[in-house]
């Protein structure tokens, strides 16, 4: 499986993974989850025609030649039921959300009236029938599906669930994700400082990328470059829905990850993708688990997460929109491209007249996390590109935000 493009590798991942099972979660915990059931309204809302304004409910015909003075027969607050019928020459004082009394066909807001006495009001302007009346069932009708299966639970959707009195709801399960770093050179966050070692940044950058999807991963720690130790860690990681291993995926003599995974029964689907950074990216599966072998270089592992792990996890969680949103941006400088791999360039975006502009965040080496930490997006240089001129229109994957799209946004 040589010369696999990013798009082809993404397809391979997405075809392999599917939605996880479902679970019931409390309304307080469901933000960002995906509905695994249709949710129906259990009442009409509003339950009757109600006033949209604080004012007076009246018969529009009575005020056709406004100004006109009407007799106030009743006061109705939200929560009250009207007791009287509005007859010719009459009105009721009504508050927002209160039921419109029989006989009245319109509401006029208080600003368009003038008090004459406690019992009489002058209406200053005419109103059309139905003015400022919110009809029964305008918001939802009893029995109708108000949220369809597959909907992501946004704050608005959570409000809707409360509106139909759902204190818990059936959603797709969150993936259980394990993260493992490998390499003798790595220094754990709590290990003593040693200037000759490499701090384990990948575990935490990957942790944060998973957390940004609303999932709390498990950090397995650091496996040293000893096949037996690595085997134990990988075995543990394969108990999870997804295992992210960084380092040891290329062809060095101590790159034991791939052979050890295979020895543990993992079927490798690919182990190289035509991309930069991120070339030695591996993907495999067992019956219960998916393994992403991410390159050790910190930026490479993060970029591979964006392209392969993120859509896979979102698919497991039941989302239909699984890819980062892409935008068009105008490049503020030249980008050279002298190979035939898809390149991802870390960029900052600014919003200017006519759209976004994209500017590199600095040195793009795959170990240089500083330029990743400033990045708002990844500019995609397609494999066939001969380089991009300043001022050209380019595609950028947004790294921040919670907006996603159904398609990757291009073939690359
Ligand atoms: N002969 C070849 N050598 C290399 C190739 C190749 O195709 N042929 N590919 C290069 C590319 S591209 C990358 S990317 C790296 C990936 O190699 P590995 O996945 O095997 O990663 P390591 O060799 O273990 O480490 C690479 C680099 O990253 C640092 N690292 C590793 N883990 C962490 C961590 N948890 N936190 C921070 N930094 C980490 C490690 O110290 C190395 O500097 O291979 C090239 N070589
Ligand atoms: O995948 Mo490597 O990232 O090009 O350094």
Automatic annotation (TrEMBL):
Native source species: Sideroxydans lithotrophicus (strain ES-1)
Cofactors, names only: Mg(2+)
Domain of life, per lineage: Bacteria
Hydrolase listed as a keyword: no
Protein name (database record): Molybdopterin molybdenumtransferase
Pathway per the UniProt entry: Cofactor biosynthesis; molybdopterin biosynthesis
Catalytic activity: adenylyl-molybdopterin + molybdate = Mo-molybdopterin + AMP + H(+)
Family, as annotated: Belongs to the MoeA family.
GO CC aspect terms: cytosol
EC number from the UniProt entry: 2.10.1.1
Residue stretches making up the MoaB/Mog domain: 178-315
SMART domains membership: MoCF_biosynth (SM00852)
Cross-referenced InterPro entries: MoaB/Mog-like_dom_sf, MoaB/Mog_dom, MoeA-like, MoeA_C_domain_IV, MoeA_C_domain_IV_sf, MoeA_linker/N, MoeA_linker/N_sf
Keywords from the named record: Magnesium, Metal-binding, Molybdenum, Molybdenum cofactor biosynthesis, Transferase
One GO biological process term: Mo-molybdopterin cofactor biosynthetic process
Pfam families linked: MoCF_biosynth, MoeA_C, MoeA_N
GO molecular function: metal ion binding; molybdopterin molybdotransferase activity
Role, per record: Catalyzes the insertion of molybdate into adenylated molybdopterin with the concomitant release of AMP.
């Amino acid at each position: 499986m040589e010369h696999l493009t990013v798009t082809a590798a993404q397809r391979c991942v997405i075809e392999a993974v599917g939605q996880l099972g479902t679970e019931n979660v409390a309304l307080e915990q469901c933000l960002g989850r995906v509905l695994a059931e249709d949710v129906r309204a259990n009442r009409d809302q509003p339950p009757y025609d109600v006033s949209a304004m604080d004012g007076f409910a009246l018969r529009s015909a009575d005020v056709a030649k406004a100004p006109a003075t009407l007799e106030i027969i009743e006061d109705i607050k939200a929560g009250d039921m009207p007791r009287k019928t509005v007859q010719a020459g009459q009105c009721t004082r009504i508050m927002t959300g209160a039921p419109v009394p029989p006989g009245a066909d319109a509401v006029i807001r208080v600003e368009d009236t003038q008090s004459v006495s406690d019992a009489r009001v002058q209406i200053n302007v005419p109103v059309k029938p139905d003015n400022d009346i919110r009809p029964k069932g305008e918001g939802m009708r009893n029995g109708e599906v108000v949220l369809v299966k597959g909907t992501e639970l946004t704050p608005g959707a959570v409000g809707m669930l409360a509106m139909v009195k759902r204190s818990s709801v059936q959603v797709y399960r969150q993936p259980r994700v394990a993260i493992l770093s490998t390499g003798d050179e790595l220094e754990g966050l709590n290990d003593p400082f040693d200037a000759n070692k490499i701090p384990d940044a990948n575990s935490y950058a990957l942790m944060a990328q998973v957390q940004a999807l609303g999932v709390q991963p498990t950090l397995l720690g650091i496996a040293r470059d000893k096949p037996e130790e690595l085997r134990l860690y990988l075995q543990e990681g394969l108990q999870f829905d997804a295992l992210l291993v960084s380092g040891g995926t290329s062809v060095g003599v101590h790159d034991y990850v791939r052979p050890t995974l295979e020895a543990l029964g993992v079927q490798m689907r690919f182990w190289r993708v035509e991309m930069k950074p991120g070339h030695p990216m591996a993907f495999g599966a067992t019956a219960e688990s998916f393994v992403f072998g991410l390159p050790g270089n910190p930026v490479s592992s993060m970029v591979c997460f964006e392209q392969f792990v993120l859509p896979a996890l979102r698919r497991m969680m039941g989302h239909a929109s699984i890819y980062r949103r892409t935008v068009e941006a105008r490049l503020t400088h030249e980008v050279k491209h002298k190979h035939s791999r898809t390149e991802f360039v870390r960029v900052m975006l600014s919003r200017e007249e006519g759209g976004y502009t994209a500017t590199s965040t600095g040195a793009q080496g795959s170990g240089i996390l500083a330029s990743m930490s400033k990045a708002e997006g990844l500019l995609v240089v397609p494999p066939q590109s001969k380089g991009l001129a300043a001022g050209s229109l380019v595609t950028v994957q947004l790294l921040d935000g919670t907006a996603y799209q159904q398609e990757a946004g291009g073939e690359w």
